[in-house]
């Protein structure tokens, strides 16, 4: 995504294990002490890393991320069930709490630091032709690394899931689960039929924004789009971004769902616990336990009722395949005995767009590193939880627009805009260039000449790509990273749609609302694209393939579907086909990607998945009582 603010640089470096200069020692100490005091008085204090563990639990949840934290919390509401949550990473840090520093969490020790495999068709401006794919290796998962944007998707996404053979997943059914989680603190939204207060997950706007945000909304209205709640009755339109923040800090799923229940005796959390295999009884084909490595020690835990995999769209298929559940031809090649032949790892989908579109302005109204790297700004945040550090990773506005390829109703937009009052140049190449993995040649030619100039950007994002990718094992070693082939733009329709999205973004800049700032497009052509006339469709296609921007929404690799769907891995109750007592509950079960950021939908899936488990096992218990 775009630039995150660089305010307390030394504090950040210390948190990531890098020694800062003595120049920053005083603010570092102040920041550290302030955060330490905040953490000790926080009523939702840190989760307990349990030692020792029981040998058996009713439910073992693998992955403590956006889904796993929710599932574990909700299952522990049944006091006589015991739940173990296994998480490969450690707990959140003080730095991950700061919304504006989201970009600094990527490529840190909180990040798995995955990369896609080169294809020659995308990510061409990145080092090695590979896109970075950050994933949270931390309690709270990618909800600790993301830009906190709260977007539910379009009603038709869920209705289409139901129409494709997944009863109970239509919009009217899933809406209750979005609302169940939510504690919306925006007064003009909280009391509508589409929102709720009192849930675990706090949702609100950042209390700070630039004047460019207002220009963005006004430009949208000039183009004929309403300023509306994109999570409400209609999605098409422009809106000030809503995010999962609370008291000016990030509200991850760990903070929202695990901290309030940290003292429940039936919920154990084991951090730094890397799951390596699911144990499956060969004759009954029942999952009965999990092998994991904790602090270098191999351990086994038994699940009396179910094993629940919530490791995400990359790690869930990896763990299934390591356990013998996956495409037989691939598992044979890796040397793993196939227990159940399923299309695990297929159907990979991700939102993809064009990064680097930069508009220069003449007034000091944007986020520029040199202007915001000040002690007063840091102190305002530390003591009052306000100011620029509360911005959602730099993103201030969202919009959903229709290209000429979109549904004629106008209610199912095909492009999403992320608006930020900053761009790739805004930190002089300190961080954003590295997060994106841009080559030095590209950065130095295009963005170095405008370093630290006031600017803003729109990221046009393709909402429903037709291209499909795959996840495959690299080896049978559970500590070797899997192979990621997103296959961006394998379907030419994706490029054609994105080009139209770029044209609409240019029209936003041309609106009257941006004229007071003398806003204009930065026009240095990208390396490799000089042969095309700047601004033509051919040039924009080259630019899209060069700065291929993903905001890290991989889904679909353990597809949910009916029994007659040969591509389905789990059924509509999220059981793995052909394996008893095993479910997958996370982004990987999405049959098709939702039209918007995926974090809120993943939390919804976890809420519904936990309810499905409760209904099944509590019904069985009541049934046994009736028989007796």
TrEMBL record:
<feature type="domain" description="Glucose-methanol-choline oxidoreductase N-terminal">
    <location>
        <begin position="312"/>
        <end position="326"/>
    </location>
</feature>
<keyword id="KW-0285">Flavoprotein</keyword>
<feature type="domain" description="Glucose-methanol-choline oxidoreductase N-terminal">
    <location>
        <begin position="136"/>
        <end position="159"/>
    </location>
</feature>
<protein>
    <recommendedName>
        <fullName>Glucose-methanol-choline oxidoreductase N-terminal domain-containing protein</fullName>
    </recommendedName>
</protein>
<dbReference type="InterPro" id="IPR007867">
    <property type="entry name" value="GMC_OxRtase_C"/>
</dbReference>
<dbReference type="Pfam" id="PF00732">
    <property type="entry name" value="GMC_oxred_N"/>
</dbReference>
<dbReference type="InterPro" id="IPR000172">
    <property type="entry name" value="GMC_OxRdtase_N"/>
</dbReference>
<dbReference type="InterPro" id="IPR036188">
    <property type="entry name" value="FAD/NAD-bd_sf"/>
</dbReference>
<dbReference type="Pfam" id="PF05199">
    <property type="entry name" value="GMC_oxred_C"/>
</dbReference>
<dbReference type="InterPro" id="IPR012132">
    <property type="entry name" value="GMC_OxRdtase"/>
</dbReference>
<comment type="similarity">
    <text>Belongs to the GMC oxidoreductase family.</text>
</comment>
<keyword id="KW-0274">FAD</keyword>
